[in-house]
Amino acid sequence: MAIEAWLMQESDDDQRLPHHKNPPDYVSLDHLADLGVLYWNLDPNKYENDPDLNKIRQDRGYSYMDMLDLCPEKVENYEEKLERFYTEHIHGDEEIRYCLKGSGYFDVRDKDDRWIRISIKAGDLIVLPAGIYHRFTLDTHNYIKLMRLFVGEPVWTAFNRPQEDHPARKGYIDSTLGMPLQVS
């Protein structure tokens, strides 16, 4: 089953809602790939011994892994953390997340600076390239279990927008977009 993504309706309503336009304006996997977003669908029930996951990790150099259960009952300062995750930012490295249970949304900016909402569910492995503006939130189920993968030791630093002079942002624009973003 392929991941679902769509152009978001700008709204101040609850961030955990889908925020579809009317009618919905879906985005293809090819469009996400053009933005540098990678996607695999795996079997989350066999993540401990999954040859497909092991191959991805080996091919891409993902040597570090940990788990995150994100829900109000298991995370201290839950609302504060969710607000931080939902603040638009970039990272100097890829952000790699494999959903094992639950669901949530990654939002990424497209070439025209519009938000694309990507719905992730159990089995979805997503890679956001270094330098892409993005944010994360749970959906209305308020639960997700993620495997977080990294090349080497984890780096947790988020750089909030604007970051046009950050080396990762410049690299992303040059290599993936091939042109400057149209900032509104």
Automatic annotation (TrEMBL):
Q: Name one GO molecular function term.
A: acireductone dioxygenase (Ni2+-requiring) activity
This enzyme catalyses: 1,2-dihydroxy-5-(methylsulfanyl)pent-1-en-3-one + O2 = 4-methylsulfanyl-2-oxobutanoate + formate + 2 H(+); 1,2-dihydroxy-5-(methylsulfanyl)pent-1-en-3-one + O2 = 3-(methylsulfanyl)propanoate + CO + formate + 2 H(+)
Protein location: Cell membrane; Cytoplasm; Nucleus
The protein's required cofactor(s) are namely: Fe(2+); Ni(2+)
Report the main location listed first in the record.
Answer: membrane
Q: What metabolic or biological pathway is this protein involved in?
A: Amino-acid biosynthesis; L-methionine biosynthesis via salvage pathway; L-methionine from S-methyl-5-thio-alpha-D-ribose 1-phosphate: step 5/6
Which InterPro entries does UniProt cross-reference here? ARD, ARD_euk, RmlC-like_jellyroll, RmlC_Cupin_sf
List ligand-binding residues for Ni(2+): H89, H91, E95, H134
- Any single GO BP term: L-methionine salvage from methylthioadenosine
Q: How is the cofactor bound?
A: Binds either 1 Fe or Ni cation per monomer. Iron-binding promotes an acireductone dioxygenase reaction producing 2-keto-4-methylthiobutyrate, while nickel-binding promotes an acireductone dioxygenase reaction producing 3-(methylsulfanyl)propanoate.
Q: Which domain of life is it from?
A: Eukaryota
UniProt keywords (A-Z) are: Amino-acid biosynthesis, Cytoplasm, Dioxygenase, Iron, Metal-binding, Methionine biosynthesis, Nickel, Nucleus, Oxidoreductase
Residues reported to bind Fe(2+): H89, H91, E95, H134
**Sequence intervals crossing the membrane:** none
**Which Pfam family name is an example for this entry?**
ARD
Q: Which SUPFAM superfamilies match?
A: RmlC-like cupins
State the top-level EC class. oxidoreductase
Q: Which GO terms describe its cellular component?
A: cytoplasm; nucleus; plasma membrane
What is the topology of this protein in the membrane according to its UniProt annotation? Answer: Peripheral membrane protein
Classification via CDD domains = cupin_ARD
Record EC number: 1.13.11.54, 1.13.11.53
Q: Which family does it belong to?
A: Belongs to the acireductone dioxygenase (ARD) family.
Primary role: Catalyzes 2 different reactions between oxygen and the acireductone 1,2-dihydroxy-3-keto-5-methylthiopentene (DHK-MTPene) depending upon the metal bound in the active site. Fe-containing acireductone dioxygenase (Fe-ARD) produces formate and 2-keto-4-methylthiobutyrate (KMTB), the alpha-ketoacid precursor of methionine in the methionine recycle pathway. Ni-containing acireductone dioxygenase (Ni-ARD) produces methylthiopropionate, carbon monoxide and formate, and does not lie on the methionine recycle pathway.
Q: What is this protein called?
A: Acireductone dioxygenase
Organism encoding this protein:
Salvia divinorum
